[in-house]
Amino acid sequence: MILRPQISDIKIINFYLGKIIVGIGLMMLVPLATAAAFGEWDPVFDYALGSSVTLGFGFLLIRIFYTKDDLNWMHGMIITAVSWVVIALLGAIPLHLSGHFAGFLDAYFDSMSGFATTGLTLINDLDHLAHSHNMWRHLTMFIGGQGIIVIALTFLIRAGGAFTMYAGEAREERILPNVMHTARFIWTVSIMYLVIGSLSLAGVAIYEGMPVVKSFLHGLWIFIAAWDTGGFAPHSQNILYYHSFPFEIITLSLMILGAISFRLHYEIWSGNKREIFKNIETVTFFFSLLILFSITAVGLARQGVYGHIMALLRKGFYQVVSGHVGAGYSTLYAKQFNVEWSDLAKVGTIIAMALGGCTSSTCGGIKMLRIGVIFKGLKQEIKRIMSPHDSIVVQKFHHITDVILKARHVRMAALIMICYLILYFGGAIVGMLLGYPALSSLFESVSAAANVGLSCGMTVPSMPTALKATYIIQMWLGRLEFISIFAFIGFVIAIVRGK
Amino acid sequence: MDFRHIKVSKLVRIGRVASGVLFEIAITLLTLVLMPVVCFLVLSWMAK
Q: What is the least distance, in Å, from the CA of B31 to any CA of chain A?
């Protein structure tokens, strides 16, 4: 028998949802200040309106559903699932008012893409977008990459059961015993790299001849989208706009550092440097990157597009790393994937995008820990078959500590992997039904669902509405890794059919 | 200047974090160099 949720459950969910919405409304004051600083008066109005609506709605929820009750596991999961939909909706208001989108759905697509750190975009005339709108687009990536809940835990919510919301956001690892301290540590790492990364990028931009103020803005924005493995850029040519090898090296480094688990950052910063060589995630990531880059490089070499081996390595490596960590930064035009890259090279990149980076990082995709665990499970089964009938086969893996592989580890990893595969192929089938080629459909679908942002040219404002809606749902599902969304669906069913 | 008021443990912690950051950056750069080199060797071997 399914139990119908109580009024108190609805109150708790809406009360904390209101608090998170207030946080987003306050975040909108940053682009508002940017607009005022640069004398962009139309965007000042866009963000004043957007912020007012968001804050008003948030405070209204808090006022109506005020409660002192703590969260339980179900509440946390549902708040997380709902907050991402609502926040993307509110975040789309100033983007829609900018006049750079064909309609509200396109603005919502970009807003969800930003919060989910995907990087696919439907914007028109990106090269002439106001600084404040660029600031907001990149800030959505920072908010989404750090985690909306992590931000809320740091500044707004002091509730028991806060870990449930944190876990709902696909961050099941608690770095420190207290979840608030965990949230603060995530901020410490990010701010440390924000300073190093932004200044390095700004320095290179100044060296390459860009004006100083523009260099610092671009340094900040590119850092945010690289570190949070997002992929938005202030120009339509993406990273190709800069035509700078040092810029590519710095963005590659930031993308890889952003793809490392915050738990691993903590270990290394605490003096346990050997962990990086032993951890199942980093080892799997290293071999996966090596194999997939080799496949892509062979595909590119056979096609003979790049006249020189260095050009092949430079172009191929950048796209594969960017795809693997889910950043979506590119040094190619989208159409070049279709026109210049062979099917083998595209397949290498698609697999890299599908696998993703490390758990508890800013990445999307299946994740290296799950791939590593499934391989260990496979190894255990092979050992079991090879061993005498009554023998007990024990398989271990190293993830911060040595862990004995249990059936539930493999089961959970396999379940999430199956969900991702269904999502990848489901999106690809929708693309094919709408008349797009199979490989391009799969490329774009995996890019959306794994929150990557690389595009082979399908994601344009003129694409069918059904495909836009499909990618929005894929970005949402992919970012939250299904569990909280399944909990939300169960909650809705319980409201309708519960007793 | 008198630095005696700064606790040694705090300095140790700052040093540990700084070395951690440098180590991470060094490993990342090493990966960026190593991967294309290995791939180049694979391509050369295949071309033979």
A: 8
